[in-house]
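Q: A reviewer asked whether we had any structural model of the full assembly, not just the individual parts. We don't, so I'm hoping you can provide one. Inputs are below.
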Amino acid sequence: MSAPFRHLLGVADLGGRDGIEEVMRLTDSFVEVSERAIPKVPALRGKNVAWLFYEDSTRTRLSFETAAKRLSADTMNFSVSSSSVKKGESLRDTARTIEAMGIDAIVVRHASAGAPHRIAQWVDAAVINAGDGWHEHPTQALLDTYTIRQHLGDLAGLRIAIVGDVKHSRVARSDVLAFTAMGAEVILVAPPTLLPPSLAGWPVEVSHDLDAVLPTVDVVYLLRMQRERMTEALLPSMREYTATFGLTGRRVDRLADHAVVMHPGPMNRGVEISADVADLPRSLILDQVRNGVAVRMAVLYLLLGAGADKVPAVDPPEADRSVPVAAGDPAP
Amino acid sequence: MSDAGSLVIKGGRVVDAETDRIADVVVESGRIVAIGDDLSGDRVLDAAGCIVGPGLVDVHSHLREPGKEEAETVETGARGAALGGYTAILAMPNTTPAIDSAAVVRQVLELGRPTVCDVYVSGAITVDRAGQQLAPMAEMAELGVRLFTDDGTGVQDNRLMRRAMEYAQGLGVTLAQHCEDDALCGGGHMHEGEWSSRLGIAGQPSEAEELMVMRDIALARLTGCRIHFQHLSTARSVAMVRDAITSGLPVTAEATTHHFTLTDASCQTYDPVFKVNPPLRTADDVAAVKAGLADGTIGTIATDHAPHAPETKELPFDQAPPGMLGLETALALALTELDLPIRHVLGLLSWNPAKILGVSEVHGAVAVDRPANLCVIDPDATWTVDGAAMASRSVNTPYQGRELRGRIRHTVLHGEAVVVDCEAQR
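A: Here is a predicted structure for the entire assembly that you could use as a starting point for your response.
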């Protein structure tokens, strides 16, 4: 198996439904690995993965780091404080400096949309986008897709509501692309101030009425509501947001019995989701986190593993043997 | 300034607002002394198959000096201008310090004097371009400044803009506006629309430009002051200016080469070489700008030549400064992308902007007894744009690698051949 993509900058790099399915199948294998007593395989032994996080992140970085370690890759953290950026090193110099240390993959998070795309133009290492500004967060979309598939089966024909601050959300942009590529219907639910200025070309419906939408969907996906939006005159108050778009205990009863609740974290309990709803059995929030590790293992393996032609494995036979195979799946 | 002896430009097609004929042009002591058949001179510049036009005039050049000499100097900017066929350029005042006093005007004029292009200077409308207090326009006008602008930003305050226009009207000078409502732009980095939404980049709506165009047309009516709209970029801005001109208001407008050749779709690479202000807009806007250039609503093509040192463009899109090189590609882009007769194109690039600058006696015509400020254009030559090969200290051209048609072969400044066969002579 080889990755059809050299970098993972956005969902489009995966090449549509077939590419996403391939990641899903490989993720099944790595879920199995994660359940072993010693959840570790030598697939990426000798590979170096660097974290280049220009923006604070705890969960995404931990998830990637766990994934890399379970694959036996070496990892290093290039910590970029905002002050060192202000000292004036250009993005290009930083990326090339890291690459010069012999790095096979760079996992980038940046507050600016397109920063990973720029880095990919300058380095030979594989670049994985771990969130760029408001733009994309492709591994989040993959773990969300995987989680839905795990609980509801094939996404084709499912109806998924994405609720909240779509305008400023990289999760929403990647999820829309991934869910619709898999054949789901997506409906965005938000006040107009929290939607992108133009939805031309987005294969989505739009609603401003959460109560009307809830009974019609299989998945309700809540986005994090950030307090600083108050200062931009996008909303009158958090209280009004919760009253109209928050998933409260009363509202959750409008959902069909089988419908599930998702959130990318970190949650603002009491704002976009009430505490009791977050802890309901139909809430898949911790499953998302758990699956995030396996999905990121699959992505790292696709980009750096035995199938990645451009970087031969240190010990190909062993690396090949190490590839886990889930029952019924073809050998990767 | 001129070479000793006479210079004859042989065999070209002489085109200006009055003339269109195959003829030789003889230049002596900085002036055109004869236009006719079979003329001779001490030195010959071949112009067979070429257009001999008046030198081009740019009303919108950022020369970066004083303050950002790593990006451009008056000398390097002027050399790029000469290579692009320009014999006159107008330095924008957004330098550090800003050109907002007689002292800085004098400094930039002084820097321009020994260069290969006539460098004119614009002054700021407000002190430090901060939009708070009127700059001393009279003392700058005394030194020859004919156009005032806070370019890079628009004058936000309605009352201050009204007073500036009243005051300028008394001095007989023109105000030029960079139309952009700061509050509505709210930190946007590209045109707000389909592409900004998809790319996750904060946008600037077209309305941020249009509101200020609308206001300044109203204030032109109120004050009678001449107003020049810089870099019009939206279809509705063009329509409003068309109406204002039709109703007889003292309004002129320019469009940049990038606003009639590129759209916001270019930003999908996230390369900030496509970041500019006002931003690249939609294909409909490009079509409207072209229509405005064709029907005379937009009388001038300007470059908005805006060099930036390479490291400042090696940043994420939203952190990089806006601006593009323009002086060495403007004529070729006009010839390649606009389906207009050569005389119309030369009007947009030469005699119309010369009128806005008030330098029509010196630039913008090919006629006996006039100063010899000329460009010789090979209209059929094709060439490939390469930022590294340009005279500018910077390389931020959005046309890197693009093949263009039409090239400046020679440029003559006050009788001196400053560019010969596409090479700067000094």
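A: Points you may want to mention in the reply: Chain B touches chain A through 23 residues (CB under 8 Å). Chain B is about 30% helix and 25% strand.
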